[in-house]
Amino acid sequence: MKLTGQTLVLAALLLAPGLIAVLIGITLGVVEQKVEEYQLYATSFVTSLLIDIVFIYLVQAQGDSVTGQSDLEAVFFGPERFHVESAALLLTLSALFGVAYAISLTFNVTHQARNFLTRFHGHRRNPWQPWEGALRNADQIMVELEDEDVVGRLSEYSRVEKERQIVLRSPVFPDFEEEPSREKVILTEDQITTVHVLTTKERTGLLSKIRSKASNGWSRIRGALAWSSVRSKLPKIRSSKEALQQTQTEKSESNTSDD
Q: How much is the pTM?
């Protein structure tokens, strides 16, 4: 195979989308762990293959046949100009895959899938240390310090084997008779002795939020349709009411004249 400038550009166009998608997913999904180079490149390569498959399918759905390298080059390179729309479609697919990765990271889809696969086990297996696993669904906690205790709602906690720190919202120190009003308090690792989880709060997954929003949206639509139906009937109701009032008035005048 002859190596030309078009071939190099084509290779870059077919390999870059995976790297773009992975970087978008890591950035928006806030990956705290260090991603090794081999993991980044392997994931990018597999993602590029998936994006290219979808891209070629869309190109062929438009009527163009892609059976070899020359046909693929013709998708991007025309006799007179470079097909910018094809490159834009490829970049759009990269962004969509990146957003999909970010959503899966944000809502921790792997954790939900792992829970589904291990629901029949008597214990949970997860990649976190007990520190993160125990605090994941914690709501109200009590932290034993060296000299006192503090109770509050868990706002933030450190993860990924970093220094253990906890941020409590609306903290209460029972040992203080007159304590100032505090919004939050940060507790560092050298202050924390023991952590007690008092209450937990189950996190709602992506599907639950979608169902809730869809249900609320459908209720609003039904309410709007019902109000529209009532508004369309208002003129008839008003005319009927006016006709009834006129009939009653005529009857009243007729009775008065007879008397």
A: 0.55
Close Cβ partners of 118 (under 8 Å, ≥ 6 residues apart): 124, 125
Helix (H) or strand (E) holding 187: strand 184-187
Report the C-alpha dihedral over residues 125, 128, 130, 136, rounded to 10 degrees. -100
Q: pLDDT tens-digit profile of 197-238?
A: 888 886 555 555 566 666 666 767 766 666 566 566 656 666
Residue-wise pLDDT for 109-143, tens only, equals 776 776 676 666 555 555 556 777 778 788 888 88
Q: d(Cα 206, Cα 210) in Å, to the nearest integer?
A: 6
C-alpha–C-alpha distance, residues 121 and 63, integer Å: 51
Contacts of 69 (CB under 8 A, 6+ apart): 1, 7, 10
Q: Are 184 and 155 in contact (CB under 8 A)?
A: yes
145 beta partners: 192
Helix (H, G, I), strand (E, B) or coil at 172: strand
Q: Hey, what are 98's tokens?
A: 């990146």
Residue 17: CB atoms within 10 Å: 27
Distance CA 110, CA 112 (A): 5
